[in-house]
Amino acid sequence: MMFPTVVRTELAKLRRSPMVWITFAVYAFMITVAGCFQWMAMNPGTAERLGLMGQKATFAFGGQPADWTTFLVFVVVIGGLGGLIMSAAIAAYVFGREYAEGTAKNLLALPIRRSRFVLAKTVVAAAWLGVLTAWMVPVTWLVGSVIGLPGLTPSLLVAAAARLFATAGMSLCCSALVAWVAVQTRGYFAPLGFAIGTLVLASVFGHTGWGPWLPWSIVGLYSGAAGPVTPPGWANLAVIALTFLLGTLLTIRHEVHADNGQ
After folding, report:
1. Does residue 236 contact residue 212 with C-beta atoms inside 8 Å?
2. How many other C-beta atoms lie within 10 A of the C-beta of residue 246?
3. What is the pLDDT of residue 81?
4. What distance lies between CA 103 and its chain's CA centroid?
5. Are 84 and 171 in contact (CB under 8 A)?
6. Which residues of 65-85 are buried (b: 16+ CB within 10 A; e: fewer)?
7. Does residue 34 contact residue 11 with C-beta atoms inside 8 Å?
8. pLDDT-derived band of residue 159, with 50, 70 and 90 as boundaries?
9. Comparing C-alpha atoms, which of 176, 212, 209 is closest to residue 195?
């Protein structure tokens, strides 16, 4: 029963954290902006009269028609690129918070296996990102309904939601290395810098033959953020799984051997 107690304790730490609400607000803002671009593409004349750039909004969607299919494709791209950033931010916060606030020494001194803390924090990060991804679905439906997009079907929405959760799962696996950097450097900034560096690598290698073998590029290719949508094969999923395993084991190793004076 010890592990569920540790998980509940980690969840309780987030209950009053403003960071949680900020992440929900960020996703809602990004989807709303995408909806605004869709509305401008649907109403270029009205947008121009209001001082908005309707033609540029059309170009932003590659000249695609303003409908639910185009909008959901763009939302999945947000889930891919935004998921990599958000999962990294969540991992940096969950794992680096103890060090930034000076409570790590108390945590490491408790008579509980330190590996359980790592696994509990991973479960909490997964739950946070999972609820955040689920939040995108009703927000997307609301924004698309308000601007009056045509062509919505239940199967279209379900397919987009499935891709959002798939990209979120892969992004979470990639963030395991961010967690390791957070505990290794004892804070927030280094893991966030590491995450930015991985996005740069994903952008550079995403259009090369190395793209399908770099975990962050795999997420971008599947979501459409790095070009045409490329579903991952078993080998690509193995790369994602190995990234998660490596990051988790490195984090556990650090915490097990860490001095509780940290």
Report:
1. yes
2. 15
3. 84
4. 26
5. yes
6. ebbbbbbbbbbbbbbbbbbbb
7. no
8. very high
9. 176
* Residue listed under structure tokens 């916060």: 93
Question: Are the C-beta atoms of 188 and 182 separated by less than 8 Å?
Answer: yes
| pTM listed for this prediction | 0.86
Q: Which pLDDT does position 181 carry in this prediction?
A: 92
Tokens for 250?
């490195």
What is the pLDDT averaged over residues 142-169? 91
Nearest-CA neighbor of 227 among 204, 250, 260? Answer: 204
The rounded distance, in Å, linking the Cα atoms of 94 and 19 is 10
Instruction: Select from 151, 173, 169, 172 the least CA-distant residue to 161.
Output: 169
| CA atoms within 13 A of residue 199's CA, in its CB half-sphere | 20
